[in-house]
Specification:
It contains 15 helices and two strands. The protein is mostly helical. The protein is globular.
Length: about 325
């Protein structure tokens, strides 16, 4: 991956090494591997904000690629075998995961997904579809922020996911589309993130959520499996670091809870009939219009209050 000569202006908020500065000033090319961890993070933030859109080829989210619409999983929900699009072009035998990565689609689970009844004796919440939307939005936000490469900073990526999702870290149980996504949008427009896109990025993420839900259960399982890997990688990093007392312990606890919720949601998604997703996606599209025409101008508190009152109506539409 080659970076443009204007990289130094993009990374003005970070400290570039003398070697990198001299390389840029002399007209040389700077690769991604030449950057420090902090410089990489700054570069990825610039990508997510669109600052580099005219300088380099932007990352294309995997859920917007044609291959995402023809994902094939086994009946047990296990790892992606091969997309229908790929079957037209013979490829040399490879590990399933490598084949998936080459197509841009995150691999699915390696082991069969158990029934939800095996994971919990209580009946699943009727609002799980809305909890899923919160998780999808948080995942899409994080991948756009990291330009599709959460592996470069698993712990940082996990912290972003947990900061945007109320379901994974706070145990929130939104009862409508609007209640679930208004919190996520509020975080996107918060001081911590508004510099990378604000409301416009938030509305783009609404489209991401709609696209993913329309893709259906197989794509959602791959998404959740990728998010599970992200959380597990972050937990692994924390485990390998020296103990940081209460902060490290608290983060590990949050990651463990998030991992359980992600896996449970994955199993729930696997059990849902195909018709669930087109209905849910249509509701999300309608709620996006409400946010654009009402919510953004009126404020997030009123969005949340209105969402609570509309929860039952949206559940009826889902049924």
């Amino acid at each position: 991956m080659q970076l443009p000569l204007l990289l130094s202006s993009v990374l003005q908020d970070s400290t570039l090494s003398e070697e990198i500065i001299q390389k840029v000033l002399s007209g040389g090319e700077v690769s991604f591997d030449d950057l420090s961890a902090e410089e990489r993070k700054s570069f990825q933030r610039a990508l997510a904000s669109g600052e580099l859109s005219r300088m380099i080829e932007p990352w294309e989210p995997w859920w917007l690629k044609p291959s995402a619409g023809v994902i094939v999983l086994s009946k047990e929900g296990t790892q992606l075998v091969q997309s229908l699009a790929e079957q037209e072009t013979p490829v040399p035998p490879k590990d399933d995961q490598e084949s998936n990565l080459s197509s841009g689609i995150p691999p699915g689970p390696k082991t069969p997904l158990p029934p939800v009844s095996k994971l919990c004796t209580a009946k699943p919440s009727p609002f799980l579809a809305f909890h899923l939307l919160d998780i999808i939005y948080s995942y899409c936000f994080t991948l756009r922020l990291y330009n599709g490469d959460w592996q470069s900073d698993p712990t940082g990526s996990a912290m972003v996911v947990l900061s945007v999702s109320s379901v994974l870290v706070q145990g929130a149980q939104p009862e409508s589309v609007l209640e679930a996504l208004s919190y996520c949008l509020e975080q996107t427009c918060s001081p911590a993130y508004r510099h990378i896109g604000g409301v416009q990025l938030g509305l783009l993420l609404f489209d991401d959520v709609v696209n993913l839900v329309y893709l259906g259960g197989s794509a959602l399982i791959c998404l959740l499996c990728d998010l599970e890997r992200l959380v597990q990688a972050a937990a692994g990093e924390l485990k390998s670091e020296k103990p940081r007392r209460s902060r490290g312990t608290e983060m590990k606890s949050k990651l463990k809870l998030a991992e359980r919720k992600i896996y449970f949601t994955m199993c729930w998604v696997h059990e849902q009939p195909a018709g669930t997703w087109s209905t849910l996606a249509a509701v999300v599209e309608a709620e996006k219009s409400l946010v654009m025409n009402y919510g953004v101008g009126k404020g997030f508190k009123e969005i949340g209050d209105g969402a609570k009152n509309k929860g039952k109506v949206l559940i009826e539409e889902m049924e």
